[in-house]
Each structure stands twice: as C-alpha cells, then as structure tokens.
Amino acid sequence: MTDARKAGADTRAGIAPRAFLESVPLYQPGDEPCAVDLSDNTNLWGAPPAAARELRSLSSGIVARYPDLYSEQLRNALARHFSLRPDMIVTGCGSDDVLDAAIRAFGEPGSKLAYIDPTFTMIPTFARLNGLVPQPVALTASYDADADGLLEQKASIIYLCSPNNPTGTTLTRKSIEYVLETFDGVLIIDEAYAEFAGESVVDLLSRYERLLVARTFSKAYGLAGLRVGYMLGASSAVAAITKVRGPYKVTAAGERAARTAVLEDQDWVSARALDAVSIRQRLTAELQALGLAPLPSRANFVLVPVHRAPVVAAAMRRRGVLVRAFGNLAPIDAALRETGGSALRIGVGPWDQVATALTALREALAECA
Ligand SMILES: *Cc1c(COP(=O)(O)O)cnc(C)c1O
Q1: 96 C-alpha to center of ligand 1: Å?
Q2: pLDDT surpassing 70 at residue 183
Q3: Alpha helices for 37-169 (secondary structure H)
C-alpha cells in the first residue's frame, strides 16, 4: 500500500497509465557490465581526440545556461560536411529522438508504420508510443527489403535501416529507389552504421522530398554517452520534425563535442571505421572456422545464428564477455531457420577484446552443446 493510502486520505481508485502502454516493453537489453562489452555497437576505441579535448576544455559556465535552441553551430558544421543547407538538418538527443519525432510528425495515429524485420528494436516501440500500428515485413533471403511487401501495407511511414541492426546487412540501392519512386508516404532510412559500409543514400535527398535519413554520433563517432543524433531531409519536413522535437534537445557539451568531431576528427573516425571493418572480417572468418554461418555484415558487429543464444550469452557473461542475444528473429536465411531465429550479435572493437569474446564463445558453445 502506498503512503497516501496508508494515511487514509484518498479513497479514489489508483492512477493508471494509458492502457496501450501495457503492450509497450521497457527497453532494457542489458545485464550487469562486463570486462568486455561487445553488446551495444558503440566505438570501443573510445572518443575521437579533438572532441575529447574540446570536452576537457569546456568551462563549467556553460552548464548554468540553456544550450542553443536548435544546435545551430552543429547543424552548420554538418551542412558543410554533407554539402546540404542547415535547414535540411534536425538534431536531437540521439537519433532515437529524431526517429521518434519524425514518426510523430508524419504518422497519423491509427496509420501503419511498415518496417523491415528483423531491425532496430526501438522502431515498433516508437510506432506504438505515437499511436501507429507497427507492421513488420521480413527481409528477403538475400537480406534486401521486400519492397512490394512493404508497399502493400499501405503505411504512412516506411522504416528501413542500412546497414541494418541486428543483421549488419545492407539493402540494395535498387530496392530503396523503387520504394522512393512508388511510395506515397515518408521513407525513413536509418544510417546509424553508414560510416562502416562507406555507402549512403544522402545523395538521393536532392531528388526525393519524402526521404529522411537518420544518423548518429553514437557509433562510428564514439560519442554515445553524449546522446547526439540528427536527421537529414527536405527543409519543409525538417521544419515539422523540429517543431515536434522541441527546443534544447542537444546539450551544450554534446553540441560542442559533436561539432568538433565533425570539423576535426574525420580522419580518426575513418581510420577507426577501417579498423572495425578489418577486425569484423577477421571475426567473421573465425566464426566460419567454428562451423557457424554469420550473416554478411557491413557494420561494426556480426550477427551469428547459434542455438539457444540466450543460454550461450549467459555462459559468455560468466566468462566476462557481454554480447547481445536474440531468441526469435525472423528466420530470413538458412542459418537462422536452422536455429529458429536464435542468434548472437557480437560487436567489433580492438582485436584483444574480440579474441577474448571468441574464446568465451568457444567455451560457451562447448558447455551448452
Ligand atoms: C544505435 C542505433 C541507433 C541510435 O542511436 P542513438 O544513440 O539514439 O543515436 C539508431 N538506429 C540504429 C539502427 C541503431 O543501431
């Protein structure tokens, strides 16, 4: 009994959150921290050097005042980086924030949000929280979007992710352009891992007003703790998302560090992304040598189907290694069909960490066999 009830003062029924929230899960993938944490795809080489220097040089004075309303300086730096106008960029508290705001800005409650499956687990949650109906459409056996399947949903918004989380695979430009040519609604493409694939659809923004591209400083840019993300799109769409997002969503420190990273850390970010790619290839080969069938990743992580992934992950955790386990992903390829959609997602970092994870995986597989 709550204190208020005990006092006997209030005899009315208790408060209850809106009924639909019962079907919305709390995002809570995590376990206790581990010595080696390859579970969240962040930059395990750390923060970029110029941005880190900028953070150390910040005076405490900046925290007593509000930050810039709409991160004008960061948007100016990004505009130069992408050769776009600043009014084609909206920033947010992580790309989560701009994805959520874009769905709220363009998705009429009751309409559908169609998305590739499997994908980023926050997407059906953001759909529900904004009153939309999430509609998964399985990736094809070649890891491409089923464009016709997505279009058939008559959704107001289609969400694609390339490279996709958790598969690591990329969508073909052909299927993306087909959706852009055929769809009447808003197409969101999440490029959280674009820096690792070296490909992007940002160039298509000049041709398609219905295209929104989400990016983040949390992965290749090594600034996950500061929570900065952004979305690129036509200025009219960006104006609507900005209104929905609201003021002051990027902190003063976050804006300064992210802007510095854009202006001064490009070489570091590219070099670490190349490191991640070559270690990913090495990890993939080692997994294949274990007789496993990892999906062909273009990101800084690898999805590898294994039986009873949550049990294997728990055995790895006991050996000080945290990876992300999935129990029942859409069985889009032969290996995932074979495991019933059970798989581990293993992030890539400096080789010693990945080697430790491989040792833990070998032992865990032997233990769980
Ligand atoms: C990690 C991730 C994000 C984003 O995160 P923020 O930290 O909120 O910028 C967005 N989309 C995908 C697919 C991700 O994996």
Answers
A1: 6
A2: yes
A3: 49-57, 72-82, 94-106, 122-129, 147-152
Pocket flag, ligand 1, residue 165 (CB < 6 Å): yes
* Burial class for 347, CB neighbours closer than 10 Å (0-12, 13-18, 19+): buried
Q: Which amino acid appears at position 128 of this protein?
A: R
Q: What CA–CA distance (Å, rounded) separates 42 from 289?
A: 26
pLDDT cut 70: percent of the chain above it: 98
What pLDDT does 31 receive? 67
Structure confidence by residue, pLDDT tens digits, 285-314 = 999 999 999 999 999 999 999 999 999 999
Q: Work out the average pLDDT over 124-135.
A: 97
Rounded to the nearest whole angstrom, what is the distance from the C-alpha of residue 168 to the centroid of ligand 1? 13
* Cα distances (Å, whole numbers) of residue 195 to 200, 218, 254, 291: 9, 12, 20, 29
DSSP letter string, 193-210: THHHHT--SGGGGGT-TT
Q: What are the pLDDT digits (tens) for 51-70?
A: 999 999 999 889 999 999 99
Q: Whole-angstrom Cα distance, residue 136 to residue 160?
A: 11
At 267 the pLDDT is 98
Q: Which atom of ligand 1 is nearest to the CA of 42?
A: 1
- Centroid of ligand 1 to alpha carbon of 216 (angstroms): 7
Residue 316 alpha carbon to ligand 1 centre in Å: 24
Cα of 6 to ligand 1 centre, how many Å? Answer: 44
Q: Give residue 3's pLDDT.
A: 57
Residue pair 135/153 in contact (Cβ under 8 Å)? The answer is yes
Q: Given a cut of 60, is residue 340 above it in pLDDT?
A: yes
Q: What is the distance, to the nearest Å, from the Cα of residue 310 to the centroid of all Cα atoms in its chain?
A: 21
Cβ of residue 96 lying under 6 Å from some atom of ligand 1: yes
Pocket test for ligand 1, best of 103, 165, 167, 191 (most atoms within 8 A of CB): 165
